[in-house]
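Structure first, sequence second, as always.
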């Protein structure tokens, strides 16, 4: 049980780190803006005050430490996903990790962003209120594929 917890935590961190490296590569190679983790941090802080959905999280009252809170949310969710995956798959998968299950799981996790985080921050369901929703969706699917690659590489390393 202890090994599974350790592996799940490491997979979540490894997957999230892979997403962040991918964002950095896109920033350097294509000028893609880096994610602003302050806004998810602000959103999380406002949830604790009883408000889940906003028209525009950028116009909501700023919260002290929101950037740090956003980064903690980002990595915390990654760890939760890593733990959830490792307990769903069990010992057989841990003994012989394969990519397809972790990739399918990682693609499914985008639902939380599309149907909770994005509408909560005022971006609409699956980024429908953004200037280019399909670009945001495709970029999200690619980022979650990077998450899967990071989780898989971490599992193989263990």
């Amino acid at each position: 049980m202890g090994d599974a917890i350790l592996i799940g935590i490491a997979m979540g961190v490894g997957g999230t780190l892979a997403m962040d490296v991918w964002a950095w590569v896109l920033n350097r190679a294509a000028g893609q803006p880096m994610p602003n983790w302050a806004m998810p941090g602000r959103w999380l802080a406002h949830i604790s005050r009883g408000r889940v959905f906003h028209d525009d999280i950028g116009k909501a009252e700023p919260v002290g430490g929101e950037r740090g809170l956003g980064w903690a949310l980002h990595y915390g969710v990654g760890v939760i996903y890593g733990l959830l995956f490792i307990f769903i798959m069990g010992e057989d998968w841990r003994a012989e990790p394969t990519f397809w299950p972790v990739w399918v799981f990682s693609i499914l996790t985008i639902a939380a962003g599309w149907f909770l985080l994005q509408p909560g921050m005022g971006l609409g369901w699956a980024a429908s209120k953004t200037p280019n929703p399909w670009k945001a969706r495709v970029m999200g699917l690619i980022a979650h594929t990077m998450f899967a690659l990071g989780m898989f590489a971490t599992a193989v390393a263990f």
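Margin note: The chain has one domain: 2-157.
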